[in-house]
Design brief:
Length: 222
């Protein structure tokens, strides 16, 4: 984690200053995007607020604002761990995608109600013919997005897909807890798929990548 000390504003919309007095534009959001340097600045991104841009080859994924700007970055090391594990897993993406979703339902059985093809079905989830195709699509999208995150500087999922996911999640009442359950299930699935590679660093890498994708989807939950 890299730190930049700043003067803590009284209001989340106040102008922030680097510790050396250099002004930063006011902002209204704590999600960040990469624009290819540890020179950091706030820029207007879209109607949802302002994004922090870094010219360094890393993705800024989170921040803490308690008198100190705490930047968590998706680094080259993270990328290497994600790529290595995905290369090992992708040949079994069908099996792993289904396992991923079954873990979600094991942790949170009520999550089945979020899927129209499951909530009124008497067929066990693992036997439902519609679950596996959906599960594989989501699993592959999540993994491919993670692999491309640092070099692309953004979540590599079509804007139309993000909008559709956001709208669907909003419609069916998906909340932050669902995203956390999904992240845990994803990490457990990957851990079991590549036990010989698994480490705290790999867990961190996949968690960072997932959080970035989740944030991109949440932007469209309306």
């Amino acid at each position: 984690m890299n730190h930049l000390k700043i003067n803590s504003p009284a209001s989340p919309n106040a102008t922030m200053l680097f510790s050396n007095g250099t002004p930063m534009s006011s902002f209204s959001d704590s999600r960040f995007s990469h624009c290819g340097s540890m020179e950091l600045s706030w820029i207007s991104r879209n109607e949802y607020g302002f994004w922090l841009v870094s010219k360094t080859p890393r993705i800024i994924t989170s921040v803490g604002k308690r008198g100190r700007l705490e930047i968590t970055a998706f680094t080259e090391e993270h990328e290497a761990l994600v790529v290595k594990s995905w290369n090992s897993m992708k040949k079994n993406s069908g099996e792993l995608g289904l396992k991923f979703f079954l873990k979600i339902f094991e942790i949170a059985p009520s999550a089945k109600k979020l899927f129209t093809f499951l909530k009124d079905s008497d067929i066990p989830a693992e036997q439902n013919p519609k679950l596996k195709p959906h599960a594989v699509t989501v699993f592959v999208m999540t993994c491919e997005s993670a692999v491309q995150l640092r070099k692309a500087g953004k979540v590599v999922v079509k804007e139309s897909t993000l909008k559709e996911l956001g709208a669907t999640h909003f419609k069916y009442g998906v909340v932050d807890e669902h995203y956390e359950v999904t992240k845990f299930a994803l990490l457990e699935t990957i851990k079991e798929a590549v036990p010989e590679m698994w480490s705290a660093e790999m867990r961190e890498a996949w968690a960072e990548a997932y959080d970035h994708l989740a944030a991109a989807i949440k932007l469209h939950m309306k």
